[in-house]
Write a structure and sequence with these properties.
The protein is an alpha/beta fold and about 750 residues long. Helix content is about 50%, strand content about 10%.
Length: about 750
């Protein structure tokens, strides 16, 4: 059953005899209002204020709810020079893009199924802030009251509908969207019922059939558009699709979202790497969620940060998405009159309650009957938001007006229609309770067991690929690390240039080896402190979408850093080793190099623990600066290992500097003598009055180093490396779980 609507809006009433391009006759606003008054059951379009001499052509085919599985596509009207055409992906000449007729006629992909969403008596309360530690010490009663964000909200969204949730700031738009999508509900106490096709839905059920585009969708800026979509497709589509099918799906989504021309462009990092525009990022965010072809789509303010033209274009794309049979809900803040006219239904929120829920075209009549008539040539969206806003100077009066409007809606025919539709869907579900309930819960259990679409190997492969691209495409960080390594190696070599093997070598070589192991390990530790805090929003976003597991993420990041550690450590060694005059021999050089690498990896594991536990890079840097110094002080050079206090032994045995220093000292002095040792007479010619040391074994004994502990020290460095990485994984898992709870 097709219900075709066509409206011609202009500043002057057009001739009633003229017909538009698709055969439907435009009618005047007055005629539409009279028709609606005479036929209450028929949908109509109320007057929408527009700019002077601006023409809008609307042609929309609604879905028959009785045949929800049959998708009817929108009919795109002919292009006119001064017309804004709905439900197509075309750009005007101003944007510099010309669309072919074949592409204009291309239809969007259909969802495999359709789903209705209903919610009943939803309430959300934010817990009051806890008293601070200082307030508790002083005994101050600083109990903060709970804040009601949503208050007994009900509604319904059907397949094929594009629904806007509107209202002033702080009225609960995003909270309602999060509750319906089962996302971001930490610190909220939520009551009420959410249903899918009339059946009570768990969070896993909603996640299985829906996709959620957050307001600030976060990307890895060093990735190209096509690479980002390949990453998303590989982890979302899984084994069900071949590689060819995944590429075809990516091309299809890029074409639908108008991303083909920027597919080889970097996404970009603001102030660092130039990339795609804000509008393209919004469309890329939607494209990322459409890859899996969900029947239910949530969007949090998809037009925020965009100009009016780009906001209109993004909403037009959403109308095409809804026209395929998807259920689309989005919160939106102060849309233009043209953008407002694109929505099928609108939900107006005020003080946590529903002030209006119904067709966009009937909102003006409802407010007029409530005593708030929208003036001519005025944006209706702005009028509704201003009417429902609470002004600080007249707060009580505004709240009384809002209460009156919300109460009027509760007893209106529109609210009755919503409750009847919810009850109808529930009754249909109850009739098929036995079979449908069994399949519903089976599907939920299968979803819980197969929570990740791709295998662990596929997850690891693509996360490692993206992590490596992020490293090599960050020119500032890469150049800085290489430059600092070369500069530090040269300065280090000049300070300890060609050390003599006399009695001063006991201290000089010990200081040089301590600096080598501590400087390289701390350098790599500091470099990776930014890894998790800067990517934490992306990790949470993708972990919530169940793209990959926490161990896969940490292990992949660790392996991506390994080549750079190997290269930078080798550059440091190849410059400083011959300058200082360490023990000659290829084997001794590679023992020196390998020890620095293993010590650096252990220090990086410690850095991963701090990074995983820190909310920001600044806090991670402050914590690491205070924590790694004891490991250096108890590393064996500043204090002999046999003189460490018992209560500090745990620091000594967890110090990578201690194990690395012992290996390097053994590599340097085991089996050789100083120049002050006379091999013929066996006498020591050192002139030092306090301690006369002439042999390498005596130097090791002076520092309480056992040459036989090299193998043990290497093994313990590997234990530290893997043990601390495992601890970092556990810390990150605990953080994610606490946020979800």
């Amino acid at each position: 059953m097709e219900d075709t609507r066509s409206v011609h809006l202009t500043s002057q009433s057009p001739p009633e005899s003229s017909a538009n391009a698709n055969g439907s006759h435009p009618v005047s606003i007055a005629a539409r209002e009279d028709e609606f008054a005479s036929s209450p059951g028929k949908k109509s379009v109320m007057k929408r204020p527009l700019l002077k001499r601006q023409t809008v052509e609307i042609s929309r085919v609604d879905l028959d709810r009785k045949t929800q599985n049959e998708t009817v596509h929108d009919k795109v009207p002919a292009l006119k020079r001064n017309a804004t055409v709905l439900f197509d992906a075309s750009w005007t000449k101003k944007s510099g893009t010309n669309m072919s007729k074949r592409r204009l006629k291309r239809q969007m992909s259909k969802p495999t199924t359709t789903v209705s969403l209903s919610w009943l008596n939803i309430s959300a309360v934010a817990s009051g802030a806890r008293p601070s530690v200082w307030e508790r010490i002083q005994g101050i009663d600083a109990t903060h009251p709970n804040k009601f964000i949503l208050n007994n909200v009900s509604g319904i969204a059907m397949p094929g509908q594009l629904i806007a949730i509107m209202g002033a700031s702080g009225v609960g738009k995003t909270t309602l969207l999060n509750v319906l999508a089962s996302q971001n509900q930490s610190r909220l106490k939520v009551t009420g019922t959410v249903k899918l096709d009339g059946k009570v839905a768990f969070a896993s059920d909603v996640h299985q059939v829906s996709a959620y585009v957050q307001q600030d969708y976060i990307f890895i800026g060093t990735m190209k558009v096509i690479e980002h979509l390949k990453f998303q497709a590989a982890l979302k589509l899984g084994k069900k699709y071949s590689k060819k099918e995944k590429l075809e799906r990516i091309e299809q989504v890029m074409s639908e979202m108008g991303l083909c021309k920027c597919k080889d462009t970097l996404i970009g990092i603001p102030g660092k790497i130039k990339g795609i525009s804000g509008g393209e990022k919004k469309r890329l965010a939607v494209a990322s969620q459409l890859l899996k072809n969900p029947p239910l789509l949530f969007l949090d303010e998809p037009t925020s940060g965009l100009d009016s033209f780009m906001a209109e274009y993004v909403v037009k794309l959403l109308t095409r998405v809804a026209a395929t049979g998807r259920t689309v809900l989005c919160s939106i803040h102060q849309p233009s009159s043209i953008v407002y006219a694109l929505f099928d239904h609108v939900i107006l929120m005020a003080e946590g309650r529903t002030a209006y829920l119904g067709p966009t075209c009937r909102a003006s009549q409802f407010f007029a009957e409530a005593g708030y008539e929208c003036p001519e040539n005025y944006n209706p969206a702005d009028f509704y938001i201003y009417t429902l806003a609470v002004v600080p100077d007249s707060e009580q009066e505004c709240k009384n007006n809002v209460k009156a409007i919300c109460d009027a809606f509760e007893v209106s025919d529109l609210a009755d229609d919503v409750r009847e539709e919810i009850e109808t869907l529930t009754n249909i579900a109850l009739k098929e309770r036995n079979e449908e309930k069994r399949h519903f819960h089976i599907s939920r259990k299968l979803h819980d067991k197969q929570s990740y679409s791709s295998s662990y190997l596929t997850q690891f492969r693509y996360v490692l690929w993206r992590a490596w691209l992020s490293i090599i495409r960050d020119p500032i960080l890469a150049k800085l690390r290489f430059s600092l390594t070369i500069i530090v190696a040269i300065v280090y070599g000049l300070i300890y240039l060609q050390l003599n093997r006399d009695e001063s070598a006991v201290q000089n070589f010990g200081g040089a080896l301590t600096f080598a192991v501590s400087q390289q390990s701390v350098f790599h530790l500091v470099c990776i402190l930014q890894n998790i805090p800067t990517e934490m929003p992306v990790f949470r976003q993708e972990h919530r979408s169940r793209l990959y597991t926490t161990p896969v993420y940490v292990i992949a990041k660790s392996l991506a850093d390994l080549p750079l550690v190997l290269i930078l450590s080798f550059i440091f060694c190849i410059i400083s080793y011959p300058m200082i005059g360490f023990r000659s021999g290829v084997s001794h050089f590679f023992v020196f190099y390998g020890t620095l690498v293993i010590s650096s990896l252990a220090a990086m594991s410690f850095g991963y623990c701090i990074s995983a536990a820190s909310p920001s890079v600044l806090i991670a840097a402050a914590i690491s600066t205070a924590c790694y110094r004891p490991f250096i002080l108890l590393g064996g050079f500043f204090q002999r290992s046999n003189s460490v206090k018992k209560h500090l032994l745990w620091i000594k045995f967890t110090s990578w500097v201690y194990y690395g220093f012992e290996i390097l000292m053994t590599n340097q002095w085991s089996g050789i003598n100083l120049d002050t040792f006379n091999a013929t007479s066996g006498e020591c010619t050192a002139t030092t009055e306090t301690v006369k040391i002439c042999r390498g074994d005596e130097i090791l004994e002076f520092y309480s180093i056992n040459a036989d502990n090299v193998g043990r020290n290497i093994g313990l460095l590997f234990v530290l490396t893997f043990g601390l990485r495992l601890l970092a994984i556990l810390i990150l898992m605990m953080r994610v779980r606490s946020n979800q709870n």
